[in-house]
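Dear colleague,

As promised, here are the two records you asked about, laid out in our usual form so they can be pasted straight into your sheet.

NAME FIELD: protein one
SEQUENCE, THEN STRUCTURE:
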Amino acid sequence: MNEFNLHTRQILKNEQVEIVSNYTILHFDDFPILYIGTNKYGNKIIGSHLEEDDNSKTILTLHTILTNKEFHQFMNGKISYLDILKQSSSLSLVQKDFKFKIQKAFDIDFDSLPNGYLPTSESFCPSTVKAHSLAFSISLKGKLADLNKAIADEVSKIQNGFTEFLEDRIKSLKGFNLVPKALLQPYAEGSFKINFELNISQNGKKPGNLFLPQAPIEKYIANYISYISENFTEDKDIFTSENKDFSEKLKALESTLNEVYEKALISKPDNINALIKDDILKSASKFEKITEQVGENFESVSILNVSQSDETPLAFLDIEYCKEFQSSVEAIEISKKGMTIDDEFREYKIYIYHLNTDTRTGNAFIRNLNNDEEMSKPKIKINGDDGLEQTKYTESLYLNKWISVKAKAKKVGEKYKHLDIEYDN
């Protein structure tokens, strides 16, 4: 332990680096070699064993506080442990007794770690057997969320979007006669968390399926969420072509769906390949509702699968990802329905329901052409530099008024996607 010069290092409060919940060992060899968990503040921590001293009966470990994005990337094999250490500004040496109780914690930087104690460049998260469930948690981070607060309207849209996403995935299982119901659980501390439990019952009009408990529906839903958040944007070309081969990730999801049917002893649909493509396209529009809320009042969303033993990260959505996802959904829609853009400014009647007066962007309702009973919800951008306070645009927002604007519209099929509005006070 002398290599670390502990007597010269700043001592930290134990509570900053102590894992108090969600403790999970990822690799064990006489001692826990690599493990994860959370501290009392809800921060994710990754820890690793450095060495032990039989004479003093002490263990020296390395604890690193992770961002939600780093935690998601590591647990899903996107970055190595070495990469985490290199980019972290919250490394600490933790001295424990042989009962793993923390004695002292010291601040340290990456350059002070002896090479012999560093992980290799191939130190990715070990494969683990994950316990899946039908309980989920959506954690908002940044801005208001870090004060355990959130805008009610945004929370409502996330709740409704995720509820529809979950229930529709169960309804899409042909021949199961299942009735899904997403139940909200109390909000949890730790930034702002929305908790869900998906309840599944069988339609009472038909005899129950005795083999249903054997079907890995929990695994399928969890893998589905991981796929649409991690691989959908990479695979967007698959959904614009009838003959494009499935990627390895999409094949793996299809394999899990096959397993659901086989374990339940229910005949698989003949066109399961086409069905899963169509279902993913339908689900993307529900998932998009969640991505549309990220940015103004919170910076990221984490979706976790919650079991009795741990929390498994399924998705991490930050502003960069959300823009890419929305762009992919639009590209697929354009390939199927075509796109038109006005050459000149035209008059439209809109109702603005969201507007950021600093960026001059937001969302509005507009009635579709040829069908007044249907409305689109395009993004809007108001040109110019004049302030928007006390204008017809903020009147529309705060007084629930329909207003006339001159705009160039972008449409995909019959739906308006974007309005470039000419400023007019």
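NAME FIELD: protein two
SEQUENCE, THEN STRUCTURE:
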Amino acid sequence: MRWWLGMVCLVILISCGRKGPPVPPEAARPEPPSDFRIVLHPLFAELSVEVPVEDIRGQSLKKIKAFEIEKVARPPEDRGPELRKILRVPFGRSPAETPRFYYRDRNLRPGWCYTYRLRAIKGFRSRSDWTPPRRFCWSIPPKTPENLEVRVLIPHTVFLSWSPVSEDLHGFPLQAPVLYRVRRRSLTEETAFPPFPETSFFDTSARRGERYCYTVEPLLSYYDTLIPGFKTPEVCLTP
């Protein structure tokens, strides 16, 4: 009788310790990264995504090992050769600790268009699906506008003017039109006005007695991409 009870207890202990069949890496791959963004700066492109927090089964991810970035370069209008490469960027952190992944690509050649997509790497054979691709074209950014003047015309109206930009950062003539974006900063908010081609701007939304700081950002319009140059130094006043 004691022998029989011992066998029953042993079977119960073994059963409690059993796990389900092993899951292949492909079945536990991460969800694709979300909210893929590309922000252009004068000297680089910044890519970022939200790090996935679950695998495709809905289980929480403890760590993402790395991210892979597919970069495809082609001349504008898809004429000429296509250059493709995969960049592997180590990550090795918990999605809870670092919810967003950033990568700066400084290897950009003027006269090329770039398409990117990303995926998360959990481990061997455990890779997420790719994000939808995002594309932009690149050229040498425009020079910073000069001779920025900011003055109050009447209460609630601030007038800005500056010299037109006709050269790139290397001093060569620009082959595409330049737009300008006025940015305004106060103690309570920051505002970026829509780009426009003129070299003057009326700000009719300024409030009397509040201090504002203005800067102007040049934007080169190149194959449906707005490539930013360096902004002017801020000029501040109180209407």
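A couple of things worth noting about protein two: Helices lie at 2-17. Residues 2-17 form the longest helix (16 residues).

Best,
R.
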